[in-house]
Amino acid sequence: MKRVIFLLAAVAAIAMGTIDMQAHKKVKGSVEKATVAENCERMPIIGVSASETDAASAPITYVRAIKRAGGVPVVIPITTDKAQIEAVLEVVDAVVMTGGEDIDPLKGYGEEPLRALGEIVPERDEFDIMLIRMAVAKGLPVLGICRGEQLMNVAFGGTLYQDIPSQVPTSYIKHSQKAPRNYGTHTIDIEEGSLLHNQLGVKSIAVNSYHHQAVKDIAPGFKVTAYSKDGIVEAIEKIDSDCVWGLQFHPEGFVSMGDDSFLGIFRHLVEKAKEKR
Ligand code: MN
After folding, report:
1. Residue 247 pairs with which residues in a beta bridge?
2. Which of 97, 172, 231, 251 could form a disulfide with 262 if both were Cys (CB 3.0 to 4.6 A apart)?
3. CB–CB of 48/74 below 8 Å?
4. Where are the domains of the chain?
């Protein structure tokens, strides 16, 4: 508990610029200077984009998955104040863009809303797009999950299917599963040599599925690295990056329940967070 309090205090102090990196610490009764390197050995802090209904929160599954992979999750509440986002990006070492509502098609990619469009939250869209663009510009690792993956595509110039059932007649697979979150119901085929392939070590796996939107036109500078059997995009990654990528399924659903088959995804995030710091 002491360590957690110290960590939070240190993070807050660094964020506010109130201490320099030559912090002092007591060792065997004497005061020694802690080096910058020593200070950097703290655990990596993983920012998690929040949704806001009656609370600024992220599902516990993301929190548990990040902890299991050795990271410290910190929920980032919605803000569209650029200075606040800059401040939080000084503190976190990586960002997870979480799942949630549909993305506004008109503002996001210039399409009129179809009748089957679900709930949209304009302020969350604006925040998420600012957060992901600023995090990528800063060189931070970013993992987008479900809405987070779609958001990543939209933020960098791609488009979405607003509603798979009404827009993709060739899609025959149930992408809105009625099954436990740690149970895979449909197969994805993974591109060899992709980030996803490298982390999972397989070219095909059953994933969970809770979406009615999906990536349509891939954003410039990104590529598709996994498809479902009916051709729906299930993973994307930034071409010139080893740590900016998005998944249409929910690996945190498995990892949080103790299923290690998807743990590599979060381990990779935490490792890259350490490297890029
Ligand atoms: Mn799916």
Report:
1. 145, 235
2. 251
3. yes
4. 2-20+31-276
- Note whether 112 and 163 are within 8 A (CB): no
- What number of other Cβ atoms are within 10 A of residue 178's Cβ? 7
Residue 96: closest CA among 138, 38, 149: 149
pLDDT for residue 21 is more than 60: no
pLDDT > 90: percent of the chain = 83
* pLDDT of 28 higher than 50: no
How far is the centre of ligand 1, averaged over its atoms, from the C-alpha of 175 (Å)? Answer: 4
Q: Is the dihedral of CA 59, 9, 70, 272 positive or negative?
A: positive
Ligand 1 centroid, distance to 247 Cα (angstroms): 10
Q: Please, are residues 78 and 114 in contact by the beta-carbon 8 Å criterion? A: no
Predicted pLDDT at 59: 97
Catalytic positions, written as ranges: 146, 250, 252
Q: What SS3 state is found at 59?
A: coil
Instruction: Work out the burial of residue 152: count CB atoms within 10 Å of its CB; fewer than 13 is exposed, 13-18 middle, 19 or more buried.
Output: buried
Write the pLDDT tens digit of every residue in 158-193: 999 999 999 999 999 999 999 999 999 999 999 999
Q: What pTM was estimated for this model as a whole?
A: 0.86
Give me ligand 1 centre to Cα 234, in Å. Answer: 6
**Which amino acid, residue 194?**
S
Q: Classify domain 2-20+31-276 at the CATH superfamily level.
A: Class I glutamine amidotransferase (GATase) domain (3.40.50.880)
Closest CA to 121 of 137, 98, 141, 142: 98
Indicate if the alpha-carbon torsion angle 48, 179, 166, 235 is positive or negative: positive
Q: Are strands 222-228 and 233-238 parallel, antiparallel or unpaired?
A: antiparallel
From ligand 1's centre to the CA of 249, what distance in Å? 6
